[in-house]
């Protein structure tokens, strides 16, 4: 009788452990939304890019102060104006969706951002990590982490090269 009770208890525990909901996904509608947003960003199709965000969305790129999608778009277009080409690597990127212990849906994205400056033609490769929260298919929070030192250096070089060119033209 004791063995039967132990076997039944073990069987119940085994079955209970097998019924955990899936929390990690390699494919999901949210992952496809992130990929579509990256394509829109690369094409500077800001209408499509902004369509992925909820009206109240906040974006945090290397900061604790959230920006609206419109504010982030303005900053990105200013920064990108210094590059003749840019985008994420086509190979090697990783995406996953996670449902955390509180039931929140997050997509994580890791990849390398590549850019070529307009004037100096300096090439940059910067690892990027995005963590994006979704509610009802819309982005409500986006966190991005990347080293801005290379971007800042390129922009400074672009400004210096432009000033040098303008000085040469005005001397002629």
Unreliable spans are none
Shape: elongated
Give average pLDDT, whole number: 89
* Count of beta strands: 7
| Radius of gyration from the alpha-carbon trace, in angstroms | 23 Å
Discrete helix count:
5
Structural class: alpha+beta
Largest sheet: 7 strands, mixed
Question: Can you offer a commentary on this structure?
Answer:
- The chain is 42% helix and 33% strand.
- 15% of the residues are buried.
- It has helices at 2-18, 29-43, 46-51, 69-80, 149-171, and strands at 24-25, 53-61, 83-88, 94-99, 105-117, 123-135, 138-145.
- Strands 1, 2, 3, 4, 5, 6 and 7 form a 7-stranded mixed β-sheet that branches.
Give a brief description.
The chain is an alpha+beta fold and 172 residues long. Helix content is 42%, strand content 33%. 15% of the residues are buried.
Helices and strands in order, then pairings?
Layout: H1 2-18, E1 24-25, H2 29-43, H3 46-51, E2 53-61, H4 69-80, E3 83-88, E4 94-99, E5 105-117, E6 123-135, E7 138-145, H5 149-171
Parallel strand pairs: 2-7
Antiparallel strand pairs: 1-4, 3-5, 4-5, 5-6, 6-7
């Amino acid at each position: 009788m004791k063995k039967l009770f132990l076997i039944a208890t073990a069987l119940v525990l085994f079955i209970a452990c097998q019924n955990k909901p899936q929390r990690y996904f390699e494919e999901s509608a949210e992952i496809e939304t992130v990929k579509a947003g990256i394509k829109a960003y690369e094409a500077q199709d800001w209408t499509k890019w902004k369509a992925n965000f909820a009206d109240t969305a906040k974006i945090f790129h290397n900061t604790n102060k959230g920006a609206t999608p419109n504010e982030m778009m303005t900053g990105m277009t200013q920064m990108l104006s210094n590059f003749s080409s840019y985008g994420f690597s086509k190979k090697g990127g990783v995406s996953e969706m996670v449902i955390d212990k509180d039931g929140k849906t997050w997509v994580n994205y890791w990849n390398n951002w590549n850019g070529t400056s307009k004037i100096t033609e300096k090439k940059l490769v910067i690892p990027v990590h995005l963590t994006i929260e979704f509610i009802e298919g819309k982005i409500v929070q986006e966190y991005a982490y990347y080293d801005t030192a290379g971007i800042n250096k390129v922009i400074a070089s672009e400004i210096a090269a432009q000033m040098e060119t303008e000085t040469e033209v005005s001397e002629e």
